[in-house]
């Protein structure tokens, strides 16, 4: 008999080598490893074990030789439940692992079981128990498949028993490894009949938002991801399990399964715009129009508002420009009209830029003695862009020099044709000073609003926009709000921009305390935790907790955005930028007395358009210029603009020390003008070539050490000593360079004019020929517009 090694024997009986080694050790035959050679006595011992076993089993197992076919029924029988209980409950439903877990108890079962479970001597303490389990179950084997899919039933019985048997033996880890290994080895050898898969019932409908991965969709449908991948493949979509599927793909797959699918639109509670979506319009009632008055400087906006309100507010205004945003309500013929008093168009644009459509109607004031001016045109364009109806108030009709026809004529050129001339623009001649025509202006406003069918629902929770906000020493944050829909009440939990609070007190435009404010009403409120910004939206919430949550979330995200912007403006990266010289930026810090003016200034400054330079407003704020403004300016090489504010003592000192430029102004357009100039000065000069003259070479002279002198005649313009030249031969530029010497006779000349002869030498070029043309040019700086 030839010697046989452990692994060879193991192979012969289709058992793991380890099992053979263990079996031998039980009979006090020690072998080192699977490569060890077996003595004859060892072989006969093993034969007695394995041959017997296989002989006994064969009749039952039919096709399979020996231990395997054997182990299977027993495995199936006991193992599954126990295996599940032990290792991985979720996997319990699967065939193989359960069998392995099982093998441990079967050890005691001598012949066949021992063959299988081999590795688990450690499990001995619980053997009796588990074996009995196994035994008890074996007869029921055929039913096992079913039990396989009912892990719940299996777990309570087998699980605990298993666990206790595994752990005390300390073989948990090993056992697990062995199991794995065995699993690998056995799988190909002992394929279980495929378990009929019990498919989950398809849902009637699934929902998703934005997209789903293949795995997520599979889960929702209760199908294997591979099945979905296959279906996608059939539909021509190659997808992996983690691939995001778009709406179309999801719909296609769901259609395949005949499952209804619905996309959920996620509503972001912190997005205030959502609350501005129109609600049930049947509840709407008529509301007053909100009117903005715009026009060129000094054409009488303030006087008109003043006249309408019968008060005098013109006196005391710096530079005669309306600087504060306010809102007022008047009553005409029993109907209310709300007027927004804005500083020119800037605030109007700023609000629009923030998506706040506040104005229902624009009145454009044009002085009859002055006609259409640049800002008139701007105002028209803003109103047109906002798709707001326009009424033209032709003002200063009391003046002898008033020429309303001219105004009408000029406005026609901008598409505003008076009704009298067959157009549809309402022109109202007025005198803001005397009050003439004001009544008919108000009448027209009401007429136009009627056509516009302005409606709102006073019963809903209020929403609207911030007209103006500032920090008041005594009252804290004070905000002028325009209620656009619903009714605002004292005590309402409110989110205003990135601030929140409860409406503590409300004051009307005439300074009266009010308890509620309906649609189109401007009110000043207190009770916010911080100062919001003009143009911010406000929304009343159902309770204070929600308002706080939304407000805080908004504030946090706003801060994050602000921080990420601020980190860009550091001394470090500024230096880098300058060094690279790629981009020129003018950093500005804007401070003003009130938030409205800050907004207006910032909007105007950002509009400055000088090629190659960006205006960047790195910080804005209402209130005096402080030391921290200066340090920020110093760190980011910014200029500080103060509008109607002054630097405090510390700021002044810091600015001097750091060399920070502070510009103080009281009139908006002066600021803009100054900055624009500064920006033009900032730019690198740009040059363009200008041809100044031409000369024809009539003869050439070679002079040693000097080179070839071109004896020329200036045919056009002039040739200057410092001009650049091109040598043109038969229409082709043969050389381009600089003049070396320019002489009239023997003397050096600075320039030689048309009609004169001269001698020219060209730097690094001697190949001049008769009849060549010398074209002279200079580089001229372009003045930027
Ligand atoms: N004669 C006459 N003067 C008027 C009339 N309306 C305004 N003015 C005068 O025109 C000047 C400018 O008027 P404002 O109301 O300050 O003009 P504005 O358009 O508000 O000007 P800014 O606030 O600087 O943009 C003031 O001196 C007014 O008295 C008018 O109907 N007739």
Total helix count? 24
Present as ligands are:
guanosine-5'-triphosphate
Largest sheet: 6 strands, mixed
Radius of gyration: 46 Å
Our estimate of the beta-strand percent is 25-35%
By DSSP, the count of extended strands is: 35
Q: Kindly name the structural category.
A: alpha+beta
Helical percentage: 25-40%
Region (Disordered): 50-204
Region (G-domain): 289-437
Protein name: Translation initiation factor IF-2
InterPro entries: EF-G-like_DII, IF2_II, IF2_N, P-loop_NTPase, Small_GTP-bd, T_Tr_GTP-bd_dom, TF_IF2_bacterial-like, TIF_IF2
How does the SSE layout of this entry go?
Elements: E1 4-5, H1 6-12, H2 17-26, E2 37-38, H3 40-61, H4 66-86, H5 95-106, H6 111-117, H7 124-137, H8 144-148, H9 151-166, H10 172-189, E3 205-208, E4 212-213, H11 214-221, H12 225-234, E5 244-245, H13 247-257, E6 260-263, E7 285-286, E8 290-295, H14 301-309, E9 326-332, E10 335-341, H15 346-353, E11 361-367, H16 374-385, E12 390-395, H17 404-412, E13 426-429, H18 438-452, E14 455-456, E15 463-472, E16 476-485, E17 488-489, E18 493-496, E19 499-508, E20 513-514, E21 516-517, E22 522-528, E23 537-540, H19 544-566, H20 571-580, E24 584-592, H21 595-607, E25 613-622, H22 627-635, E26 638-643, H23 649-658, E27 662-665, H24 668-682, E28 686-703, E29 707-720, E30 724-729, E31 732-744, E32 747-748, E33 751-753, E34 757-762, E35 773-782
Parallel strand pairs: 3-6, 8-10, 8-11, 11-12, 12-13, 24-25, 24-26, 26-27
Antiparallel strand pairs: 1-2, 4-5, 7-14, 9-10, 15-16, 15-23, 16-22, 17-21, 18-19, 18-23, 19-20, 19-22, 28-29, 28-35, 29-33, 29-34, 30-31, 30-35, 31-32, 31-34
The structure holds guanosine-5'-triphosphate.
